[in-house]
Amino acid sequence: GTEVELAAYVAVGMVLLTSGTVAAATLDIPLAAYTAYRTIVVELSGFLPASDGVALKVQFSTDNGGNWIASGYNHIHLCTESETGAGVGVFSGSDTSIVLTSNTVGNLIGNAANEGYNGEIRLRNWQASAFWPRINSQGYYISNNATPAGIATSGGGSNETAQDCTALRFLFSSGNIAAGNYAVYGLT
Prior knowledge:
Number of strands: 12
Helix content: under 10%
Radius of gyration: 16 Å
Oligomer: single chain
Order of helices and strands: HEEEEEEEEEEEE
């Protein structure tokens, strides 16, 4: 769960742009300083919610984090639980954010010390104002189920307006981010 461990997974051609720890209501990542990179990759590790039983979400900004878009997102993530192999999908054609994890009771992110979320989020072609900004992600977290289970997620989403995406905001569906490590990489 450290920045050194995150760096071990960096692909050739990727440049570390910023990294750190977070304990706040949101993790806001302005992108205006990174226009030389075609793809932005965000690695989240040990991302632990303050509240038990929440979903992880992401929102976009078009003004480097001054304001956050709170409508017009479409997304789908498939979530598979390790104890039974059961799958659940989370999706929407019109939402206030992109949901990166399950939002089904019993399959939400747990907040015990050994629970939380690890994952990678990619924002490609983020400066192409003629396209809807979009991400894809994959992750793994420990659920808040009575018998905690691992849940693997994979999916993506976009905002339904052609525009630049100049910042990302990560937040839980309820409560703060209690702890977490992040690293942001650029790929040319």
